[in-house]
Design brief:
Strand order of the largest sheet: 1-2
Radius of gyration: 30 Å
Largest sheet: 2 strands, antiparallel
Distance between the termini: 19 Å
Number of strands: 2
Structural class: mainly alpha
């Protein structure tokens, strides 16, 4: 909900800019700032740029959401699939050493530690010292893909083994990996597009000194100076709000 409110703030800024500029337009030649960037024509050009970047985000963001959902759906069966494969291979009675390798790789895929995580140590002075360890939970999509590839190649070394279950056959696992890789690549393509569109949005709307919001705020200052704080000309735009971008942490 917070994200929706924040995204809606960009649209509101553009809508408010259009309202303010329309009011300046009605003032005709009486609205006559010395700064050409505050002219009606210049601000209409900025509004057009802002609408264009918001339109671009209106395309790239839903596409990214779709790609993320597709990737999540493709990766969702992975943990259960490799667990079943390990159990089926174990039941076959084939190579015990290979079984150990498969089980270890499956644990990597699922982000299961081979050994329990060391507990923090409470010192005599009451301070707590955490263990200097690196997490073995390999849960990122890229690592899952790499480990699943390793899992399949390890299984393929036993050329005499083939599961009877259709979705556990080596060809089925390879097809599953290919599908997962495709969805992961699609996300990796879509994410930079959204990032670049957001950068452009922030530049056009909020960059100092020439972004849309800074210029609109400056136009209100000009109107206040030109007509007076108690003038009807200023009062018709004084209540139109423009919100600056929140700083990213």
């Amino acid at each position: 909900m917070r994200k929706q409110n924040y995204e809606g703030g960009h649209v509101k800024n553009v809508a408010n800019a259009k309202e303010a500029v329309l009011r300046y337009t009605y003032l005709g030649t009486r609205y006559n700032p010395t700064n050409p960037d505050l002219s009606v024509a210049s601000m209409n050009a900025l509004i057009a740029q802002a609408e264009a970047v918001l339109d671009a985000l209106g395309i790239s963001e839903p596409l990214l959401d779709l790609r993320l959902k597709e990737r999540a759906a493709a990766f969702r069966p992975l943990n259960r699939r490799v667990t079943r494969m390990v159990n089926v291979y174990e039941a076959s009675g084939n190579d015990p050493l290979l079984l150990t390798k498969l089980r270890s790789i499956a644990n990597d895929i699922k982000g299961i530690r081979a050994t329990p995580k060391p507990k923090p140590v409470v010192n005599a002075d009451g301070s707590v010292t955490g263990p200097n360890t690196i997490s073995t939970a390999q849960t990122s999509f890229d690592l899952k893909l790499a480990n699943f590839d390793k899992f399949i190649k390890t299984l393929q070394t036993d050329t005499a083994f083939e599961a009877n279950e259709a979705d556990l056959k080596k060809a089925a696992l390879l097809a599953m990996h290919a599908g997962m890789e495709s969805t992961n690549t699609a996300v990796n393509v879509a994410e930079p597009a959204v990032d670049n569109d957001r950068i452009e949005r922030d530049r056009v709307l909020y960059a100092e000194p020439g972004g849309l919001v800074p210029m609109m705020l400056r136009s209100k200052v000009y109107t206040k100076g030109a007509f007076g704080s108690d003038s009807p000309e200023y009062k018709q735009v004084s209540g139109i709000e423009f919100r600056r971008a929140k700083k990213r942490r």
